Structure formats: structure tokens, C-alpha cells
Predict the 3D structure of the following.
Amino acid sequence: MSQAALDSIVESWGMDPARSFVGRTLGTNISAALWRSPDGGERLLSGTDADVFIVAYHQDGLPRAHMLLDTDPIYDGAVGANSWLVVPPGRKPLAEVRGDWNVLHLYIPTEFLRRIASDLPNASMRAMAERCARLIHDREVAPLLQRITAETTAGGAPSPVLLEGLCAQLAATLVHEFGGSNTAARALRECLAPWQRRRAEELIAREAVSGLTAGELAAALDLSRSHFSRAFRRETGMTVRDAILERRLDEAWRRVTQSDDPITQIAHECGFASASHLAARFRQRFGKSPVEARRMAGP
């Protein structure tokens, strides 16, 4: 992608070019840009008309994001660290983000990926695009994206040769892991449909304090517990148990700081075995005990 094309994206997002990049490197095949929000707040981000696959990597996560591909919602909520997605050519991404954020974008020409796919048996860029057009946490890909981020933000001028080598390795990994007929089929089976993820998040938000279990969540989505647990962790970066615990702690915090209910009662009604169990988890999450949090909240 040309420098002019990158600058036009900055302008379309309403960002100051002098403050929008943490780092930027252009190579022969792939462009890498680490965008940042210098002042937080809300912002609408859109894609590009260029014939490229966009890899968007959120190393630190996002406080809040509402994402669409064309008109299809693919995510709404906080974005976990080390999550990423691939936007294929011809799709129109739109994201509304809030708060401070840093996002690495890699612009990989379609022809470059096609050449890689031609060297791999049964590889399909279409399968890769269908699999990756959602937020993903993947142990094979995240380290490569972390290294590319580090090279993009390094002091001085990053080596175009090194950067392109890393990007080529990333592109090959994406095609191999998610574009092969067997791996693509397996990966598609091991993910949640958008409606399933939304339903799971709704149930966790509403029923977590009532003793909701992973088995009950899986049954509500017509999935086996093992399949649901794997898919949920793959897409959110946390276990179902941890997601339920996080929601219970959020509710406990609200009641501790906004009501006069006894701590023992809050513990019981938020799904904890005892007040001491709540206190241990509460301190682990928030860095203070329920009593300290109530005292700090004031009358």
C-alpha cells in the first residue's frame, strides 16, 4: 500500500497524521502501521478500497469496540489482549472504538497471499478469510504479531527486510493454519457463530450470579460442553469459568460499593461459597478487600 493510501486512511479517520502513528514501515509487499488514539474518546474507523487483506492486531486490547463487516455485526464489547482478525478484500469493515487504543494494521496484498497459497496443497484464501473474519486468540499467530509490533515501534528505522520476512512468515502461517481444507474445516467447527457468542455473553451477564455453569451455557447453545469451552476460550482468551467469575465479581463490586447489604449476603447472592471466598477473589481482582472498597466508596 502506498504512503498516500495510508495518509488517506488517517484523514478519513479524522486523526492528526503527526500523532496517529506509533511507528510506520513500508516494504515491497506489505505495509505495517501501528495506529494510536492520542487522546482517547470515541472514534469511527473504516477500511480501505485497496486489494489487500487487513490483519488488525490488538496487543493491549480495547476498552470497548463495536465492529461490523459490511452490515454484519461481528463483535460488541471489550476486546481482549492479543486478539486479532483478518478483513478480506471486498468486505467493508467499520468499528466504533472508545477510550485509549493502539492497533497494528498489516496490509497484505491479495496477490502476495495467492502466491503463498499456490505453494501449499489444498490452500484456500476464501477459507482463511471466512475463518479469520472474527476476533481470534491464537497461540501460533500472536507471537508473530507481537514481534512485528516490536519492530514497527523500535527506535530508528526498522529493517524492511526483517519486517517483510516476519510478515511473510505470518502470511504463510495464516494460509497454512486457516486456509487448508482440513484445518479450515476443523477451525470452523471449533468457533462460535456470532449469534452463539452474543447469546453466551447475554446469559453470562444475566445468569452468572445465579449459579450458571459451563454445561448449562453449552446446552443453551446446543453444543457439547467440551466444544463450547474450547471455542469460547479460543475466541475470548479466557475460560468460561473465568468469564462467569468476572461477571460475579463485577456484580459484587456494584453491591459492595452501592448498597449497605452485609458482605456475607452479597457473597451468597453473587454465587460465592462464603464471605472469605468472595474476599479472596475480590482482592485478587480489584486489589482490595470488600470492606476496603466499601470504605473508599464512602456513604
